[in-house]
Specification:
single chain, about 200 residues, mainly beta, Metallo-beta-lactamase, Chain A, 7-stranded mixed β-sheet, 5-stranded mixed β-sheet, 2 helices, 14 strands, binds zinc ion
Amino acid sequence: MTNENNTLPTSSARVHILFNGYARDGETPAVSRVASTISFVREGAIRVIIDPGMTPDQNAILAPLAALGESPLSITDVVFSHHHPDHTLNAALFPNARFHDYWAIYHGDTWEDRPAEGYDLAPSIRLIETPGHTLQDITTLVGTPGGIVAFTHLWWSAEGPADDPLAADMQAIHTNRARVLQIATLIVPGHGASFTPGETTPR
Ligand SMILES: [Zn+2]
Ligand SMILES: [Zn+2]
């Protein structure tokens, strides 16, 4: 893997966390609670939702979006970090968006093949391929005035777990964590609040 995609041409996007996800074992063995960290990124006319997955209800996504003055109808792009339902279930809230995953862009009834590695949604918004949790995981890199933000499932939360209990390829996670830590100044993980990576951040 080359590192030519590790820098962004501009840093003019703005990021907002709409919902901080979680993953908790349930009171009964069969029922757990899980919600995705869901984010909104804006650069010019491009308005992106990342991981519109499970939440207690849809208002958990729509209310913070409305507070930013944004309509779900105005969302131009949705990114799926990977295909699990806890990160995709509410995608239909954004009927006008193009949908991005690791290998294609979907819009209406069109399916456009393309690799995610190095694909730019906007000058400050880039996708890179970071398999490990699943073999189809991608990370969204966003250049902001405050630094580069990585939206990624390489970490569940700042608190761990250090090793992904559902990893398809833990060694790939180690490799891709190292790559992302070289780039990002802020991590937005799959199931927790954003955090500044440091010496205790699992590699
Ligand atoms: Zn997953
Ligand atoms: Zn997840």
